[in-house]
Amino acid sequence: YLKKQGHVYKTIRRRYFVLSQGSLEYKSAEKGNTKGRINSLAGYDIEVDEESDPLSTLYLSGPGKDLVLYFDSLDDLQQWEGILMAHIVYATRFACLQQLGSEKTDGTHV
Q1: For the segment 20-75, what is each residue's pLDDT rounded down to a tens digit?
Q2: For residue 71, what is the enclosing H or E element?
Q3: Phi, psi angle pair for 30, to nearest 5°
Q4: What is the 3-state secondary structure (H, E, C) of 7-62?
Q5: Residue 26 and residue 46 in contact, taking contact as beta carbons nearer than 8 Å
Q6: Strand partners, 49
């Protein structure tokens, strides 16, 4: 579980996050309804504010929706930062491979 700032109302809510093959989904609870999803983290960037008080803050921004995530400890933030970066790299590589594949099938040359 992580804490996430809302998009419309800037309240901070506890959400269950699932990372899978370069995508990110969050729910109200582990078995709850999906509240949001980023289908591909390709093109996303991470910015960390370790000095924010009282919680450490991570900004995930990209071509889709931006997320503001809060962590109770710096260790948790750093762990999630590494995991998110790995999924961003995965999604970016996958998108590049898809692009190359579509260029080959439509007759264009790389």
Answers
A1: 999 999 999 999 999 999 999 999 999 998 777 777 899 999 998 999 999 988 89
A2: strand 67-71
A3: -55, -40
A4: CCCCCEEEEEEEEECCEEEEECCCCCCEEEEECCCCCCEEEEECCCCCCEEEEEEC
A5: no
A6: 57
